[in-house]
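quick one, 123 residues, struct below
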Amino acid sequence: MEMNISQDLGAFAALLAKATEFNMLQPHPRLEKYHKAELLFHGYHDLMLTVIDIIRVCASALDALEDVPDSPTSASARSISDVLAIALKLVPLEEIQILDKCHQLHLKLKAIKPEDPDNPNSK
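---
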């Protein structure tokens, strides 16, 4: 059982080292612990919280439109607000933190140059 876990972890580390899916955030050129996605974020967790805040502000603005009596936009505003509420429920909050940790591990593994068995100088 322990051997399978070690093999699985090794396979996961190899996959993470070669991952091409971490494209949203790029290292900031001057700030070591920050990343950029047209805006500065401390990590994926910070990025996701910002997205959630934007959705909440939009939903609040739409809910305020609903309070205006006899407004033709109140029904559609409510529908949009409901969809935004569903979007908030779909955000995987618990998984966000592991994404930051996977990203950091990806960067570390990517920085390690694998040993080339054909090159005697790589050891």
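The two ends are 31 Å apart (CA to CA).
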